[in-house]
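Incident log entry.

Two folding requests arrived from the same account within the same minute. Monitoring flagged them as a possible duplicate submission, but the sequences differ. Recording both here for audit purposes.

Request one:
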Amino acid sequence: MLFRGQGPLIRELGCIFAVLFTSPVAVQLLREIWYLMQKDFRLEWRQRAALNGMLLYVGSTVFVCYLSFSLRGGQLPAPAWNALFWIVLLFSAVNAVAKGFLQESRGRMLYYYTVVRPQAVILAKISYNALLLLGLALVAFAFYALVLGNPVQNVSLFVGNVLLGAVGFASTLTLVSGIAAKATNSSTLMAVLGFPLMVPMLLLLIKVSKNALDGLEFEASQSSLLTLVALNMIVGAVSYLLFPFLWRS
């Protein structure tokens, strides 16, 4: 329904990806990505303070919004609900992804340099951060709907938009985190580089989610969704191509 009339193109792309992902080099790369993602999940589980802090940030922000609107007798308007939701996700994404490369010690990075390829490192970080942000986004959406009501009329479109947003935030901020990790004042550089890159994607995400709140069909958001998919693919390709040069610097 979303990609109506584009069946031949999708089938052709599927054949290309099937050939690429079944080659020995791609299989080895996928294996390295999987091992690195397992390592990140184990580290996150052992150091649960950061994850608990992110969940606390989401919960406290939603509760403050509840105190500001609902307890004063006013219902939170749908545009304000939409804007506050993405603001919470944006700052949660920055806090979650910023530690991706900053928490890696120099000795561990040198060890990675000897056993895996740099493409596996950046793709593993992007995949792990995308899953982490998707989980945070779904928790925030559930808590939002419980506390502030659920004005979303097209839930499938909204969840699909959240998925694209999680992938977009993860891919962009992971590359920025890798660049910032090479600088001295990395936290400031992360914020300075990250927020301007997020603005075009954030505008598209807010537009699509507004359509989901209004109950519009997929066709009304097709161009914006395709643009988000294209942005995610471009950022992923740029990360894949440029990270090896950053890795060797």
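Request two (distinct sequence, not a duplicate):
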Amino acid sequence: MTKIQLVTNTIINQGALPLYYNADETVTLEILKSLYKAGIRAVEYTSRGEAALSNFTKMVEVRNAEMSEMLLGIGTIKNVKQAEEYYKAGADFFISPGFVAEVAAFLIPKDLLYSPGCMTPTEIIAAEAAGVTFIKLFPGNALGPGFMSAIKDVFPNLKFMPTGGVDTTKESIESWFKAGVSAVGMGSKLVSKELMLTKDYATIENETKKVLDIIQTLK
């Protein structure tokens, strides 16, 4: 099995991809451990602050020592320089807010999954032509499940995952899966700023378990 297929299968099997960023290394690692305990085996850390690269490097170190099954992805990749840095740091997959052709050309030949954010058929066509197989619908709250339903038959060979605006409720999650997505990306609705601020790792774990349970009932 290729690395791209392994990552794709892992994300699809769990059905939700948690994503978060925290400037504090300890908080970052504790959230990672909480997600792992909840059953998560693929997570996206977003490159949205000065501490992102050093924190991610530490995450890889801890993963290798304590949770070998966890796949660590990096999000908010906007250029090749960033992709190179996190490739060296050991990222298992890469996610962008938009499609960057140079990033696709750098990662895909290395058998690394690249999931760019797209919100138009034109962008999706460009990504597919570059070898992308897993599309992030972004921003999901602006597009809505109706967009997924409308384009699904045009792109039968692609997998889709909305990020942005997906709630932790069964109604929200179900509406996306019924529309045809393979997974849902979940950021602040799951790992909220408030939970990070109060270091409420137990609630993060429990809420993640609930989401995973909801998704299993929908499959």
